[in-house]
Design a protein that fits this description.
This protein is of the alpha+beta class. The strands form six sheets. Strands 1, 6, 7, 8, 9, 10 and 11 form a seven-stranded antiparallel β-sheet that branches. The chain starts with 9 loop residues before the first helix and ends with a helix.
């Protein structure tokens, strides 16, 4: 759940569209009219989330975030804070990115734009520069050359564990999109991310790799945070927003800077600048003093970018409450990016900080070790130190360890193994990215080395990372000889580790649910495991003994823990009268808190369970989860839309249509609801209604490809090739990655007798999707037909 879930997008729809006529005359979206779908089903869907809703009150919007006018820009800080500004300007934040060619921009491009070709199996990409501008020329056989300008540089290869640099280009729809050609400073190679295609992580680009093996080809990931797109949540710069401009009928991307500037941390400074320039002597300087924040608010300043986040509401800007718009702990749902003790299992940032003893039982913040202006290292009392391997960043708190370092480390004092961070903050390759491109990050959970446990969790660990020639058993034995019995894990961590072998809810519950623990990250891990593995609606009449720990966790200090406990109780036991009364009571406003922040998390959890179930082909569990989510967040358009998708997957088309129509009544941006409504109406045989829905989707957002694709499909199926062609071409102009669109265009061209054009179109389809047997069959037939007799 670490990325915001949206409705069925390109790849889901593509799978539905790939089915085609076995005789090759036409490729159509084969929409069967399913029997048994009556108006009763529509009524059930319409009423499912209202007849027994826990609340009828709509979610309140979070407090309004700062606007662009509230920000003054980093240059406004320079005149008063010259030393800090100069330090920041040279830092990794100050040089995090920029726009090449701007006279005021000093972005450093480290990738070699020297004209040396980057060779794929089916393409040649030439990185070029001229007059301070950079671009990639993409050449493919049988295709016109395409030039992508570099309109933004992301990163400078700064990171010691493996630094990279990426590039964005302006897209015709108004978005700024990441190009798939990245540079690794550590490896000295061009690489791309194959995660959504071949699932091999980051891979060097070689002549054996297809261009479409790169997950960002054609470019689809945008700068800015909008659920319509794959995105990086506005972290790669400052003041980055992407929004649909309803007047211009296109997207608008605004970027204050591709560096991480002063106001990204300090918040909006326009009021402060005005007051200081006016000579104000008020105690209210118009800006929060970051150094005076408590540890949690201090961490939130950094974790807005340095943590995985699940979006709760759109519109966040620095200076707003991070927890009103995002949650960090709930990213543990879904693919479980962390181990039970808080270390990175797949991919994460510095989230492990939340699991460290230094944070939980001490006052450690990011600024305890990192200078916020220079990003250099320092002691806990702010004294600069040369680098990350200087033990004083630890011994400034743990003074007793400094008196006899070898007695603690069991390594010679001057050796690498005797450095605090070598054992307690080792570099670990981000597993989701593979091992071909170096991208190691230091473990911020500050864990005790445990070779056996590390290996069982799939981690290399500190000991194995240095002593690769020794077995895990040998390392474990050495640790025992040196230190004896190691400090036990905190109870919640130990429970989640033990629950890996639990098979029943009765045995798992006491291991996973720890109401008295002070380890919030471990509590969330246990609750996430419980709700995903064990919470089922058939427990409604089960043992009430399951209720007690969940009720207790609903009183936890952390709102994410509260929401997880309530969502778990809701999903597993929400039908029991006593439980239902308890849930209703928890939704009542308390001392000015209208519970919207809690309810939003609660609904996101249940909606995420529904998304996972739908993706796993379990539509009934998805429906139960969405209906439960709508009981706490009534009439939320995204939940209604996803409920419609689950109903459609179950074969309840009337119920799906009803849910889509409800979503449309409440969605100010109805594009995807109209597309999916059109699909459902088409499956019901209402082609007139389907065409009308697709056309409304185009009116709502003319930059989207799917309604054009579906209209082209409709006319192609209706044997109107001439009418189908412009819609398919429009779809592919908007999203050239639609393999099915290229395939269907090939069939249109075949029908009108253009064999050359049909062969080119089917080749484009196969360049993206090699698994389409019908496209392969058509390609072979076209090759045979065009062969000289």
């Amino acid at each position: 759940m670490r990325r915001p879930c949206v409705v069925a997008g390109r790849h889901t729809l593509m799978r539905a569209l790939r089915r085609s006529s076995r005789h090759g005359a036409l490729c159509a979206l084969l929409l069967a009219v399913l029997a048994g779908c009556t108006g009763d089903a529509a009524e059930r869907t319409a009423n499912a989330a209202s007849a027994s809703a826990l609340t009828t009150v709509a979610l309140a919007a979070p407090p309004a975030p700062p606007t662009a006018a509230d920000f003054a820009g980093a240059e406004s800080c320079q005149s008063c804070h010259a030393a800090e500004y100069a330090t920041w300007k040279r830092s990794t934040h100050g040089t995090a990115g920029g726009v090449p060619g701007r006279p005021t921009n000093d972005v450093r491009v480290i990738a070699p734009f020297n004209g040396v070709p980057i060779r794929f199996r089916d393409a040649v990409v030439i990185p070029r520069q001229a007059n301070g501008r950079f671009s990639f020329l993409v050449q493919r056989e049988g295709e016109p050359d395409t030039t992508f300008s570099v309109d933004g540089v992301i990163g400078g290869g700064h990171m010691n564990g493996g630094g990279t640099q990426g590039f964005v280009t302006a897209w015709p729809d108004g978005t700024k999109r990441f190009l798939p050609f990245d540079w690794s400073r550590s490896n000295g190679v061009w690489f791309c991310h194959t995660g959504t295609r071949t699932e091999r992580g980051w891979q060097p680009i070689t002549p054996t790799m297809r261009l479409a093996d790169c997950g960002d080809w054609p470019p689809s990931r945008v700068l800015g945070d909008d659920a319509r797109f794959s995105n990086c949540q506005s972290c790669h710069g400052s003041g980055i927003t992407v929004a649909f401009d309803s007047a211009a009928r296109r997207w608008r991307t605004d970027i204050r800077s591709l560096a991480v500037d002063c106001e990204s941390c300090h918040g909006p400074a326009a009021t402060h600048v005005r007051r200081m320039r006016a000579g104000s002597v008020s105690a209210d300087i118009g800006l929060a003093a970051i150094g005076a924040l408590n540890k949690d608010r201090s961490l939130a300043t950094c974790m807005g970018c340095h943590a995985l986040k699940t979006r709760l509401a759109p519109g966040y800007a620095p200076g707003a409450s991070l927890e009103a718009y995002y949650t960090t702990y709930l990213s543990q749902l879904g693919d479980k990016p962390f181990t039970p003790d808080g270390r990175t299992r797949t991919f994460a940032y510095q989230d492990g900080h939340f699991a460290s003893d230094c944070y939980r039982n001490g006052g450690m913040t990011c600024a305890s070790c990192h200078d916020p202006h220079s990003q250099g290292y320092r002691t806990a009392d702010g004294q600069p130190i040369p680098g990350r391997f200087d033990d004083r960043q630890c011994t400034s708190c743990h003074g007793s360890k400094a008196s006899d370092v070898p007695a603690h480390t069991k390594h010679p004092a001057a050796s690498t193994g005797s450095q605090c961070v070598s054992c307690h903050m080792p570099y670990e390759q981000q597993h989701e990215l593979g091992r071909a491109i170096r991208y190691q990050r230091s473990d911020h959970s500050i864990a005790i080395p445990r070779p056996g446990l590390d290996a069982s969790l799939g981690l290399v660990g500190a000991c194995q990372g240095c002593h690769q020639n020794l077995s895990v058993a040998a390392l474990d034995a050495q640790v025992t000889r040196w230190w004896g019995t190691l400090k036990p894990h905190e109870s919640a961590v130990a429970g989640v580790l033990a629950a890996r072998s639990a098979t029943s809810i009765e045995s798992a519950t006491p291991l996973l649910l720890h109401p008295t623990s002070r380890n919030t990250m471990a509590q969330v891990a246990g609750l996430a495991e419980w709700i995903e593995r064990f919470a089922r609606s058939d427990q409604q009449g089960g043992s009430a003994s399951l209720d007690a720990p969940l009720r207790a966790l609903a009183d936890a200090p952390d709102r994410d823990v509260q929401a997880l406990a309530l969502a778990s109780l809701h999903l597993a036991r929400g039908g029991a009268p006593g439980v239902r009364r308890f849930l209703e009571q928890r939704l009542q406003p308390v001392r000015g808190d209208d519970r919207s922040a809690l309810r939003r998390r609660w609904a996101v959890i249940l909606g995420g369970i529904g998304d996972a179930a739908r993706a796993a082909g379990q539509p009934q569990r998805a429906i139960e989860s969405y209906v439960a989510a709508l009981e706490v967040a009534p009439q939320e358009p995204q939940l209604l839309l996803n409920l419609g998708l689950a109903r459609a997957a179950q074969g309840d088309l009337a119920g799906a249509v009803a849910a889509y129509r409800q979503s449309l009544q409440r969605d100010p941006r109805p594009y995807m609801a109209e597309v999916n409504l059109g699909n459902a109406l088409d499956q019901q045989g209402d082609t007139t209604g389907a065409v009308a829905a697709y056309r409304r989707a185009i009116t709502a957002d003319p930059t989207g490809a799917l309604p054009y694709l579906n209209l082209g499909t409709h006319y192609l199926r209706d044997d109107q090739a001439a009418r189908a062609r412009p819609f398919l071409e429009q779809a592919l102009a908007r999203d050239p990655g639609l393999a099915t669109g290229h395939f269907q265009l090939a069939l249109v061209l075949l029908k009108v007798g253009d064999l050359t054009g049909a062969a080119r179109a089917v080749a484009r389809s196969l360049a993206i999707d090699t698994t389409n047997a019908d496209a392969r069959q058509l390609s072979d037939a076209l090759r045979e037909a065009r062969r000289p007799q």
